[in-house]
Design goal:
Archaeosine Trna-guanine Transglycosylase, Chain: A, domain 4, seven-stranded parallel beta sheet, alpha/beta
């Protein structure tokens, strides 16, 4: 490590802030003096806040030029500010918000960037060529898992142009109030996942037979054709005698699809065919300083290239809703944003919780005192483009540009809903560290700190920690990520793909179970 990296360093996000975070690995001891003359009164861990001025009891604590809380006691300059020193402000009210008021920044089109993708009949483009086996109910999971294992070892090696075989297993399908209004969310989520661009159209279903979620309810025939458009294996069918006969049937059907998928080849596609979901998880105070601003910069590049970018995580944008409604491309989009926030407020209230349930012990250990501070660092992933649409949970995105996908912030549920929204690439930032992955879509993981990137060198695809130490800039890192996205979309494997790490599909079911 060079001397300049060891020198005491804090990062202030906005000129009006009265706190900054300590950048140095391992934090800094009491009595450390910064070049500006500020002296620490006590040890401050890395990523945690230090008071830049005396803050009186009741005074506003400002980061990102936003009040993230009020001092519970007098806080002298140079003190460590953690979650015990401040009181959280109330969330912004959802009436009288600024509606599409912000003048959109000048964004010049970005031409000439391409990737090698699999073009689908519906016009979408896959970044991977995957056979998916859709399931209607959890009951069939064990059988499908068994079959997938055998397909992968016995059949897949014979079809080199197919990347993978994935069983779309989940915990839904029966034991639920299937006609309750909220049941629409998990059902359409599953339907749209089976149509994800990397899975070419839900062509194979394994069903049990007696479950509530019947195959034609999951994937209704198109309005103009009687052709149901998929092959169905129903385990309770009289034709099956013994476990092996079910496996043989699934494998025979799978092989037919594998031989078709194997005919496909990558072709040159414009960057505008990318549909990228961005998410953060295992966040720390560096998420909003390094990785997320770089993702925001890359997100603007994608929008300029005509692509679709989705940010999400309702409880992590709720406290910045005034920024988002102002950035909406039209009043209609602003109203859609508010409707999703209202729905989620009610959903949380029903469970006697509020948005403060979001922050984890690890977030706090990493320096994030509360959800307001976490939200400000999360929203920067969306860059500066106008928000051109809102995707309700489980729906598929239909417009281009920067979209808000209304999803919970839970990593697995957010990822699952973004799959339904039609992403063909996922970017995930983490500060505390998570080995997160999706089987259906490549996930590029971005580390927020050098220390995490060093320890998890074979799990993190990009190290944005170099921004904090001044080794690179947000702009340079944003371009690096943009180019990495094009490479990964063209087939370059992420670390999660190399180790075959992926999380389970986790359907968002706000409806009742029976
Ligand atoms: Ca998340």
């Amino acid at each position: 490590m060079t001397d300049s990296l060891c020198a005491p360093l804090y990062i202030k996000m906005h000129g009006a802030d009265n706190v900054a975070i300590v950048a140095n690995d391992g934090g800094l001891p009491g009595l450390t003096r910064f070049p500006c003359g500020l002296e620490l009164t006590e040890r401050v861990p890395q990523g945690h806040k230090v008071a830049l001025a005396d803050i009186p009891a009741g005074g506003a604590i400002t980061r990102y030029n936003v009040t993230i809380g009020y001092a519970l006691d007098d806080i002298p300059s140079g003190s460590w500010i953690n979650e015990f020193k401040l009181q959280m402000p109330a969330p912004p009210r959802l009436d009288r918000l600024p509606m599409a008021t912000r003048q959109a920044p000048k964004m010049h089109p970005l031409d000439g960037y391409t990737f090698q993708g699999f073009r689908n009949p519906d016009g979408s483009v896959g970044t991977r060529n995957i056979l998916a086996i859709t399931t209607t109910v959890q009951c069939v999971s064990g059988v499908v898992e068994h079959a997938v294992k055998r397909i992968k070892s016995e059949l897949l090696p014979r079809y080199p142009n197919v990347d993978d075989v994935v069983g779309l297993e989940h915990t839904y399908g029966c034991g639920v109030a299937i006609d309750a209004p909220d049941a629409a969310i998990p059902i359409r989520t599953l339907r749209n996942i089976s149509r994800n661009p990397n899975l070419v159209g839900g062509t194979m279903i394994v069903s049990l037979g007696c479950e509530k979620l019947q195959p034609d309810r999951l994937l209704p025939a198109t309005a103009n054709g009687s052709d149901r458009g998929y092959d169905l294996v129903t385990l309770q069918d009289d034709a099956y005698v013994g476990f092996d006969s079910m496996i043989v049937s699934i494998m025979t059907t799978a092989e037919r699809h594998l031989s078709q998928l194997d005919q496909r080849r990558r072709e040159t596609c414009p960057a505008s065919d990318l549909v990228v979901g961005v998410q953060c998880g295992g966040s720390d105070a560096f998420s909003g300083v390094t990785a997320n601003p770089a993702i925001g910069y890359a997100s603007d590049l994608l929008v300029r290239a005509g692509a679709t970018v989705m940010f999400a995580e309702t409880t992590e944008v709720r406290d910045g809703i005034d920024q988002l409604t102002a950035r909406a491309a039209s009043e209609e989009v602003a109203l859609d944003l508010i409707r999703q926030m209202e729905w989620y407020d009610r959903y949380l209230a029903r469970g006697e919780a509020d948005r403060s349930a979001n922050t984890t012990p690890g977030n706090k250990k990493g320096g994030l005192s509360n959800i307001v501070e976490k939200a400000m660092g999360s929203i920067v992933k969306s860059g500066s483009a106008p928000i051109s649409g809102v995707v309700p949970p489980g729906e598929r995105a239909v417009t281009k540009g920067l979209l808000y996908a209304a999803t919970p912030a839970s990593d697995f549920i957010c990822g699952t809903l973004q799959l339904a929204a039609g992403i063909n690439l996922h970017v995930f930032s983490t500060g505390r560290g998570t080995p997160y992955g999706l089987a259906e879509v490549p996930v590029i993981k971005v580390a927020t700190r050098n220390d995490l990137a060093r320890r998890w060198h074979d799990l993190m695809d990009l190290n944005a920690g170099r921004i904090a130490t001044g080794e690179t800039t947000i702009e340079e890192m944003g371009w690096e990520l943009f180019r990495l996205m094009l490479d990964v979309a063209s087939g370059r494997k992420t670390w999660a793909e190399r180790w075959q790490l992926h999380n389970s599909l986790t359907l968002f079911n706000p409806g009742p179970v029976t």
